[in-house]
Design brief:
Elements (H helix, E strand, L loop, with lengths): L1 H28 L19 E2 L2 E2 L10 E6 L19 E3 L6 E4 L8 E8 L3 E9 L15 E7 L11 E7 L4 E3 L2 E2 L4 E7 L2 E9 L13 E10 L8 E4 L13 E6 L2 H31 L4
Parallel strand pairs: 3-6, 3-16
Antiparallel strand pairs: 1-2, 4-6, 5-15, 6-7, 7-13, 8-9, 8-14, 9-10, 10-11, 12-13, 14-15, 14-16
Helix pairs in contact: 1-2
The protein binds calcium ion (4 copies).
One calcium ion binds next to loops.
Length: about 290
């Protein structure tokens, strides 16, 4: 009799879990997969909120966007970008920058290609910088070769909340948040002939509460500094906006997205874990059954 009761409970648990998994899959099938990072027409500001994250439909985005792809496997933060899957990217150079200061002779002098990824734990960036001469001779991070990532995690256009950051990664590996050294994020620089790669992992609690979902939007811009002569910087590019530390209303956006096949792979892995748990539960029940009452 007891065994029958446990089996009924087990079946109910399995059905409940199955419904949750299928429900999630159904939602994902309804997700629109963006195809490019081009600027989209401005209609009105976003308003929809979910679990503390700002969710938005693509047609409401004003400035240029970078689509951040959900990663099945987190990248190794070592500056080697070879494990990154193909995905959306933006090019930052004197032709594409909203803000351009100083002198730049060409793409070899200063330019970058930026990609982004995310999972439940962190937001990732892969940045390949072309810079002919690397200089990191100054105490102030903004006077040397390096990249700046401006983020408005809640996309509330308010610049001074706990969700707002200006991360700088200098070509020599120094990491700051608004100019102050930080170990809240992980970043690695790999120098190569003609430039350097920057790979970054920003823990999600730095940006938003809870777990991100496909469709989450953050305010985002990226800056690139060039020092070829020592001392102060020689050139400065900002993708969207006039500063990476303030005025997030001028930023572009980072839109979280995912490929259906990746989502299915993640769900399949979850189902495998559930199956293992179910087997463990059955083993425990079996042990319980074998107990002889006193
Ligand atoms: Ca890597
Ligand atoms: Ca240069
Ligand atoms: Ca904010
Ligand atoms: Ca340089």
């Amino acid at each position: 009799m007891k065994r029958a009761m446990w089996i009924v409970i087990l079946v109910l648990i399995t059905i409940a879990l199955g419904v949750r998994v299928l429900g999630a899959m159904g939602k994902e099938l309804g997700t629109t997969r963006p195809t490019s990072g081009e600027a989209l027409a401005a209609l009105s500001p976003p308003s929809q909120q979910s679990e503390g994250n700002t969710i938005i439909t693509a047609q409401l985005i004003a400035r240029r966007s970078l689509y951040s792809m959900r990663l099945v496997t987190p990248p190794q933060i070592d500056g080697n970008l070879s494990e990154w899957p193909a995905g959306d990217s933006i090019e930052l150079n004197r032709s594409t920058a909203y803000t351009f200061m100083g002198g730049i002779t060409g793409l070899d002098d200063l330019s970058a290609v930026i990609r982004s990824g995310w999972d439940e734990n962190a937001l990732y960036f892969a940045i390949a910088v072309r810079d002919d001469i690397l200089v990191t001779d100054s105490t102030d991070v903004w006077r040397d070769d390096g990249v700046e990532i401006g983020l408005d995690g809640l996309y509330d256009r308010y610049p001074w909340g706990p969700d707002d950051h200006q991360y700088t990664i200098v070509a020599d590996g120094r990491i700051t948040d608004r100019g102050i050294p930080t170990d809240a994020i992980s970043a690695a620089v790999l120098i190569y002939s003609g430039g350097y790669n920057v790979e970054v992992a920003i823990p999600m609690p730095q940006l938003i509460p809870g777990i991100p979902v496909s469709g989450t939007v953050m305010g985002f811009t990226i800056g690139l500094r060039d020092d070829d002569t020592g001392g102060n910087w020689d050139a400065y590019l900002i993708w969207e906006g006039t500063t990476t530390a303030d005025r997030p209303e001028q930023f572009g956006t980072l839109i979280f997205t995912e490929r259906l096949e990746d989502r299915i792979a993640i769900l399949e892995a979850k189902i495998v874990r559930l199956e293992k748990k179910t087997q463990e539960l059955l083993r425990t029940l079996s042990e319980f059954e074998q107990l002889t009452p006193p």
